[in-house]
Write the structure tokens for this entry.
Amino acid sequence: MSWAGQKPSRAGLTRLGKLLALSHVPPRHPGRAATLPRRGPLRATKLHSTLVKRRTTSLARLDALLEISGPHWHAAFGADLGNKTPLRFLAAGYAEPHTVKRFGQARLTRFLYRHSRGTWGAPHADTIIAAATATSQLWQDDLSFPELTEDIAVEARLALAVTEEIKELDERVNALVREIDPDGIIASVPGVGPVIGAVILGRIGDTSRFHLLAAARAFTGLVPTLDASGTTGHHGGLSKRGDALLREALFLAANQARRLDPTLAAKYRRSG
């Protein structure tokens, strides 16, 4: 098994995160540093993080509700539960077994084909019908399907609404990154996309205010604590005194970068 398939080491990813933040972001032009539009990315990236966590919560609840219906629903949707096609199917109230049977294979196929733009078709419809049949046989009359279906539909509608908000916010973040970094320097860093790039640019802000790299590292919170007394002392875990959203972005970027960049991969392996 390659290093990329191993469980990420927090210490290794922390070191990579600092490397990404401090070694690849060049100093800005002195005349532009004071006018950096920092508050736009600050608000947008914080809202993006909040919406993503809210959507994750809705999908987790939706997954739990489908688990009540039966394990076959996971086989029907699998890792695609967060996509719009299954969410629209569930939001319409079609998770009720008797409704699926009345819908029929032909109509269900057309529904899935239309909402997935041709990606889903008859095989997916057959799997969903099989899941509905298995649910009926599993619970028979011991479960109130209409109430469970309505709970599922509510969570699916919430997830859909938040997904649309995230999509619109992604476009806004992309525009902000292009405005702040027109040369695409931050996006060229391994593991850094538009959203993570906006977090780094927005949360760090004017890099000229950091006269030492140590100050920038302390701002991120990716530095060890120091417990010192007299002539002795030892380092502990991360201080976590910096910006939480910035640390999260650097951690995610480092986790992705170690899979893309051989140099960072080697550094990660040495870090243990």
Observations:
- Confidence is low (pLDDT under 50) at residues 1-7, 22-37.
- Residues 145-180 form the longest helix (36 residues).
- Residues 7-26+185-271 form one domain.
- The radius of gyration is 24 Å.
